[in-house]
């Protein structure tokens, strides 16, 4: 019995000592992160792709509305054709924020290819039938603004074996800005992000 208690005590001490050696989590400043990049897509890659796309849009004049004012943009499909489980909204949101800050584009959340991004826009209009709501404060008919531009695109991945120890992974962020009225592409861009590293590194 004593031997069993002694073994249990040793095991407990070993477990608690092991837990104590774990490193505490640290905060990373995304604006001053000098750590090596991963082979998969990380936040810095989305930042780079979004910055490149917005800078090219602004430089091309594609989002400069004649006579001033702001274009209304809707987000169409941005397809993830990589081997990774990523949310393309991570790219789209960065683009939307930068375009909004530029003062040239505002994004509609009332219209989308799969329905409204913000369903509350439609839900709020159902209050028109409610006797409990002051009808003077309910959104009026004919107030939703139709979009001028549509943003669509695809993120693709291509893997290449350089040698027995090295892989090269190529990512391409391909985006198109279409004038909804004419169906013409006002702007198209492609941002390549190329990574080379140990072939044992998981990229998805």
TrEMBL record:
It comes from the Bacteria. Keywords: Signal. InterPro entries: LpoB. Residues 1-24 form the signal peptide. The keyword Signal applies. NCBIfam families: lp (TIGR02722). This is Penicillin-binding protein activator LpoB. It comes from Halodesulfovibrio marinisediminis DSM 17456.
